[in-house]
């Protein structure tokens, strides 16, 4: 992993991250080692997003 942009050890909360831009952001930041906290107004969508990211 490129140390220039490593997010290892960082926790990131992304609101509205179950779909759209928020989900893309969660996916991208997760690839750089961040622990992503998924948050959405609908619990079911949030759970589906978590499943997709794993």
UniProtKB/TrEMBL annotation:
Cross-referenced InterPro entries: NAD(P)-bd_dom_sf (IPR036291), SDR_fam (IPR002347)
Superkingdom assignment: Bacteria
SUPFAM superfamilies: NAD(P)-binding Rossmann-fold domains
Stated name of the protein: Gluconate 5-dehydrogenase domain protein
Biological source species: Escherichia coli 97.0246
Lineage: Bacteria, Pseudomonadati, Pseudomonadota, Gammaproteobacteria, Enterobacterales
């Amino acid at each position: 992993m490129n140390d220039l942009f490593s997010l290892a050890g960082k926790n990131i909360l992304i609101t509205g991250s179950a779909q759209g831009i928020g989900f893309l952001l969660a996916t991208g930041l997760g690839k750089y080692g961040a622990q992503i906290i998924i948050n959405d107004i609908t619990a079911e969508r949030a759970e589906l997003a978590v499943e997709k990211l794993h």
